[in-house]
Amino acid sequence: MKKNIIVGQSGGPTAVINGSLYGVVSEGLKHMEETGHVYGMVNGIEGFLHDHCMDIGSLEATNELELVRTTPGAYLGSCRYKLPEDLGDSVYPELFKKFDDKNIGYFFYIGGNDSMDTVSKLSRYADKIGSDIRFIGVPKTIDNDLVETDHTPGYGSAAKYVATVVREIATDATVYDNKQSVTIVEVMGRHAGWLTAASILARKFEGDNPVLIYLPEVAFNQDEFIEKVKEGLESTPNLVVCISEGINDGKGTFICEYASDVGVDNFGHKMLTGSGKYLENLVKEKIGVKVRSIELNVCQRCSCAHLSRVDLDEAVNAGIYAVQAALDGETGKMITFIRNKSVPYELSYSTADVNIICNKEKPVPAEWIINDGSDISNAFIDYARPLTQGYVELPTKNGIPLFAYRK
Amino acid sequence: MKKNIIVGQSGGPTAVINGSLYGVVSEGLKHMEETGHVYGMVNGIEGFLHDHCMDIGSLEATNELELVRTTPGAYLGSCRYKLPEDLGDSVYPELFKKFDDKNIGYFFYIGGNDSMDTVSKLSRYADKIGSDIRFIGVPKTIDNDLVETDHTPGYGSAAKYVATVVREIATDATVYDNKQSVTIVEVMGRHAGWLTAASILARKFEGDNPVLIYLPEVAFNQDEFIEKVKEGLESTPNLVVCISEGINDGKGTFICEYASDVGVDNFGHKMLTGSGKYLENLVKEKIGVKVRSIELNVCQRCSCAHLSRVDLDEAVNAGIYAVQAALDGETGKMITFIRNKSVPYELSYSTADVNIICNKEKPVPAEWIINDGSDISNAFIDYARPLTQGYVELPTKNGIPLFAYRK
Fold first, then answer.
1. Which of A226, A225, A204, A246 is nearest to A364 (CA)?
2. Cβ-based contacts of B201 with chain A (< 8 Å)
3. What is the least distance, in Å, from the CA of A351 to any CA of chain B?
């Protein structure tokens, strides 16, 4: 008997999470002899619990599905909903009743480590009750911190964004190169520095900006930082420094928390200050040069102008491979990337047990962080560069990119 | 006798200021029968005073000049140097002595209204002493606030950046569309709202985000703003609001200054808060929904990924036209744009007296600001859209854009 497919998105958006959605839907539609409808959960498992579904397979009849492929964000909407640890909770039979009502045979969930937790729990519950629904996770995160995979879809485009934008910022920062200045760029990454490390790709030549790069993997020493900035200003009068939002003192305190005494605003709210803002004030105080901090905004995870062709293709393929794996009988798995070689870059797709992936984080290897934690090694460049290659031509209208959206 | 050309850049960078530099240099080199060298002032008139010059014409022999065309920032470096009001000051004979030493006959200065002040003063001094050096200004500003011209080079690309990025931010903001939220985007523009107005181009349909748009041209009332946000949330649960950094109460106080009592940081520095951050706290206090503010950073003025083909072409043409005007005997002029029609878009180039341009600002017309100052009219769309058309293919290397820089 034919079984239907259902697919959902969860966690923070990326530039290519809809690429994976496109992959799942288009591949699902190719196997109509085994599958029926391709449904989409609106706002992930949380929305599904409230019966928010759509027949996403029907988009293929229009140009909309093709438009989904290059639209950033999460076309189906997302959620941050954690299923109960206790598989005896009443939410599980409730969910599986709904799966049965819709004749679901294949469940795909596109997300990061929290989303893999959902796949893990649902597949374990299915095993417990003897359900034959197959649950497959499709990786997604700009943080690139999932274990058991060489990298994750979303990272390559975010890395390309950071590299390009930091090069632009450095170009902007040096127009008054007859005056000393420090520009601090704060990049997303609470616990893993993969994205901040990508700022090294912005360098036009050895010794170019960003001269200093700090990741959360290494304890951040404020005095040593000031010395490094002073040193850097000698060779580079307009110094650009990139930091992860999550830099910390190695003893459990984020650097931004050092600014916790900054007081309250008119409304009595504690003023929240990022690590970049804190270091801006620190440099102003200790060195006295002109200094500016820039927090790269949500575009890090949703810029379509910096889509990496390699990243988008891999995101689509991850969705396609997920459908194939489920049809082959796999369940409780996440799609993984295996790098065969870097030059020329060559990738294989595989699967790994989702239970050993969920709720874990992969840090940047210690040996790739050099110069007392203030720089990144060339081994990282060899790793990251292939993931940022190529551009994607976007559909546009009236001079700006055209996005798909649920009507 | 052959006379040399000198060209400089001044004020804040744009994505296409180097396009105008390319125009001046390439056109200058085409008229070698009348001109000799094409020099570049490094860091504008301030650098020239310290004899910082380069033979920028020599770049043509390499691929470098072509690369300059699409490089953001200011290849020659910039300055914010104001010449003395008193034409009797000793800096004037000093400068003209340096012009003579380099056999300068044609002086081009690419910049905004402050830079036009430099062109005005130098041309008036030349007139006073009977010098035949010709001084021509080439307009440049993302603010689009120069008078006597339909628009300015740099605006179209910045507007395209704002439109694209606000559309991306709106897409990102709506992934959790089952929860209410407000996203406030702060756009550059201290006195004129042209760039913030361009956020209207981000709307995918009537009533789409950004639902509210506030410019500095209209007095900002905080109570009315809160009412508009409440109203907006009813139809658009994930509301995006765009504001100019310079929104003010109409009585001379910037909205960000209302947050001036937020206290000092650890170092005793007054915490600077932007208007977006202030409104974030206001919405949190008065409405209590999830709210985030995003300050678009310097990429507004230096993003190469959002270059408008129309803008870049016009920037180059402005440089070319400047050289032709100078060779035709004009001086004390700025190149201006005259729009013949919007559909299809058709532009002519002309010149205007630089003395009536410098130190003036052109606001967004009052009739284009509607709904009690919370929205922009379609007439603005007709004005702005042609300026944002087309993309520019960038030279890239290793997956990111290649930029020219002085070695």
1. A246
2. 398-400
3. 28
| Contact between A399 and B405 using a beta-carbon 8 Å cutoff | no
CA angle B350-B353-B358, nearest 5°?
A: 115
Domains in chain B: ranges and CATH: 3-154+304-360+390-401 (3.40.50.450), 156-302 (3.40.50.460)
How wide is the angle at C-alpha B52 spanned by C-alphas B49 and B57, nearest 5°?
125
Pairing of strands A134-139, A333-342: parallel
H or E element in which residue B3 lies: strand B3-9
Q: How far apart are alpha carbons B171 and A304 in whole angstroms? A: 11
Report pLDDT for A265.
53
- pLDDT tens for B360-404 read 899 999 999 999 999 999 999 999 999 999 999 999 999 999 999
Q: How confident is the model at residue B95 (pLDDT cuts 50, 70, 90)?
A: very high
Tell me, what DSSP letter sits at residue A254? B
Alpha-carbon torsion (A113, A117, A120, A122), positive or negative: negative
Helix axes A309-327, A17-30, angle to 10 degrees: 40
- Give the pairing of strands B35-41 and B53-54: antiparallel
Would you call B143 a catalytic residue per the annotation?
A: yes
Cβ distance A265 to B284 less than 8 Å, yes or no, reads no
- What's this model's pTM, rounded to 2 decimal places? 0.96
pLDDT at B310: 98
Alpha carbon A382 to its chain centroid, in Å, reads 20
Query: Is B397 in CB contact (< 8 Å) with chain A?
Result: no
Half-sphere exposure of A237 (CA within 13 A, CB side): 7
A84 phi/psi in degrees, rounded to 5: -60, 145
Q: Closest chain B residue to A80 measured between Cα atoms?
A: B176
d(CA A100, CA A4): 10
Of B14, B17, B75, B168, which to mutate for an interface test with A (greatest number of A Cβ within 10 Å)? B168
d(CA B180, CA B233): 7
Taking CB atoms and an 8 Å limit, are B168 and A74 in contact across chains? no
**How close does chain A come to B137, measured CA to CA in Å?**
19
**ipTM for the complex?**
0.95
Max CA pair span of chain B:
74
**What percentage of chain B has pLDDT greater than the value 90?**
87
Which residues of chain A lie closer than 8 angstroms to B344, CB-CB?
none
Altogether, the residues listed in chain A come to a count of: 407
